[in-house]
Amino acid sequence: xxxxxxxxxxxxxxxxxxxxxxxxxxxxxxxxxxxxxxxxxxxxxxxxxxxxxxxxxxxxxxxxxxxxxxxxxxxxxxxxxxxxxxxxxxxxxxxxxxxxxxxxxxxxxxxxxxxxxxxxxxxxxxxxxxxxxxxxxxxxxxxxxxxxxxxxxxxxxxxxxxxxxxxxxxxxxxxxxxxxxxxxxxxxxxxxxxxxxxxxxxxxxxxxxxxxxxxxxxxxxxxxxxxxxxxxxxxxxxxxxxxxxxxxxxxxxxxxxxxxxxxxxxxxxxxxxxxxxxxxxxxxxxxxxxxxxxxxxxxxxxxxxxxxxxxxxxxxxxxxxxxxxxxxxxxxxxxxxxxxxxxxxxxxxxxxxxxxxxxxxxxxxxxxxxxxxxxxxxxxxxxxxxxxxxxxxxxxxxxxx
Length: 401
Fold this sequence. Notes:
The protein is α/β, with parallel strands linked by helices. The protein folds into two domains: 2-201 and 315-399, Zn peptidases (Aminopeptidase); 203-313, Alpha-Beta Plaits (2-Layer Sandwich). It contains twelve helices and 15 strands. It is globular. The two termini are 27 Å apart.
C-alpha cells in the first residue's frame, strides 16, 4: 500500500507532496482508498464533500455503535509522506492483521478519511471533520476561497462530488481512534515506538493585514516611507520573542505582498500567524501581545494593522480513562514496560474535532526519528510503522469485543 501511495502528488523537484483537497492528486487517493476497501469486502460511503468511511460489520445486528479509525490523505504544501496517510494505511493493515488473527468484531469497525485536514487550500484546518460534527456549517464553508479565488463549493463540484447529497453521520460511531506519525521528538527521547495522546494544545490561525503607502524604492527617502514590510518584520520578531519567553509556539509561515515589486515600497503586506500554547488563556495572551506590539510598531512606521482570527481550536483533553486503557495494552508480558507512554501534542488533528463534539476519542503516535514534520524530510522507520499497525490492531480488538 505504501508503495502505491508514494508517487501520488509528489514533486519531482523537492520530493515533497502536494495533495491539496479536491485536486487530481486527492481524487486519485480517494479512488485508491475505495479500491483498497472493496478488496477487503468493505463497502465505502463517500459523502457530498469527499469524506469517506467503510465498515467491517459483524454478523447479525451490531450490539453497540462502532469503532471508527483512520485519518486524512491531504497534505500541506510540499509536505511529508506520513502525516495523514500513515493513519489510513495502518488502519487498513490493522483490519488485515485482525482477520489473520481470526478475530471477529462484536461491534462494527470503520476505516475513514476526512478531507482538508491541513487547511492547506481553504485555510480552515480539519474542515471535513468540522462539517461532519457541525462545528462549521456548510453555508459558511461554501463561501471560503482558495488562493486563486475559487469558492470551496465550486471546487467540490468540479471534483465530481455533490455537496447537496449531505455529509457523513456520526450516529453509528461509538468512539474514534486516530493513528498518526508523531510531529515531534517525545517518543525518541522516551525510546518508545508507540505512544498515546493525552491532549492537544489550543491553536489558531490569525491574519495580520498591514497597510501602508506604495512608493518608489529609489527616490523615496527612508524617513518619508510608510512601509508595511517594516511593521511586518518587527511583528515577526516580536512573535518569536514572545513565544520563546513563554515556551509556546508562534510562526509566520505565509506572506502575501502587494504590489510585490522589487523596486517598489509595498502598499500592503498580509501575513498569517500560526500560534499555539499550553492553555487557551496562554494562547490568547500570546496573540494579544503580538497584536499589541504590531500596533505599536505600526504607529511608529505610519502604517496600520488589522488582526483577524481565521481558525481557532480550543484545548482538547482526550478521554483519560480511554487513554489509560489503551496505554495498558502496551505492557510487555515480562513486565519490562509499563505500557505505551501518554504524551501531549501541539499539532491539531481530526481526533480533536471529534473529541470536542463529544465522541470518545484517542490517538496513537508512531515514533518519528527526527521529529521533522510538514516537510519532505518527514519519515518513520518501517519497524516502528509495523509496531504501530500491531498496536492499532490491539486497540481495535479491545474496543470492538
